[in-house]
Amino acid sequence: MAHRILVVCLGNICRSPLAHGIFESILDDDFFVDSAGTGAYHIGNPPDSRSIAIAKKNGIDISHQKARQFKPSDFDHFDAIYVMDRQNLKDVNSLARNNQDYQKVQLLCDVEGLDGVDIPDPYYGGEQGFEAVFRLIHKACETLKKTF
Ligand code: 4NP
Question: Ligand 1 centre and the CA of 77: distance in Å?
């Protein structure tokens, strides 16, 4: 397996399920992709219906995903960990056990053209928020793919 990629947000029901589905749709079988949340609120739940809908509108089925919580052993099982915002970065980095763990963690938008912006949490907003977040995550994933 060339690359094992983990994408992380807070709840693992809105943003990281989109990044998970998008990466799976644009990367080949040499890649293994998973997602997790720093929080425990939604463990076992499917993605938010608005994330399922915007993914479906773009030809990606994420309805089978189930939320789980990020755990320190994820540092052992993944080569790269992409987080959605600076709070996620802080939370994941706080679980790093050594410099090698720490080096694996990066903002998803820390790529050319996106300047390390946070992917806003769309949970409390409307459907337009999910459209905007989908486009931003898609752009970040496509840009990162060129670096793999
Ligand atoms: P996510 O969005 O981190 O993109 O999955 C959230 C979903 C739920 C909550 C927060 C963020 N929540 O507080 O329940």
Answer: 24
Q: Ligand 1: which residue has its CA nearest to atom 13? A: 11
> CATH number, domain at 136?
3.40.50.2300
Integer Cα distance of 120 and 126 in angstroms? 12
Compute, in angstroms, the gap from residue 109 CA to the centroid of ligand 1: 18
| Predicted pLDDT of residue 1 | 52
The answer to whether the CB of 91 falls within 8 A of the CB of 15 is: no
Q: Which domain holds residue 133?
A: 3-145
Q: Over the stretch 38-81, which tens digit does the pLDDT of each residue have?
A: 999 999 999 999 999 999 999 999 999 999 999 999 999 999 99
DSSP H/E element including 112: none
pLDDT at 2 (0 to 100): 61
- What Rg value do the Cα atoms of the chain yield, rounded? 14
Overall domain count for the chain: 1
- Tell me how far CA of residue 66 lies from CA of 35, 47, 54, in angstroms: 9, 7, 17
pLDDT at residue 132, as a whole number: 97
Q: What is the per-residue pLDDT across 78-98, written as a single tens digit (0 to 9) for each?
A: 999 999 999 999 999 999 999
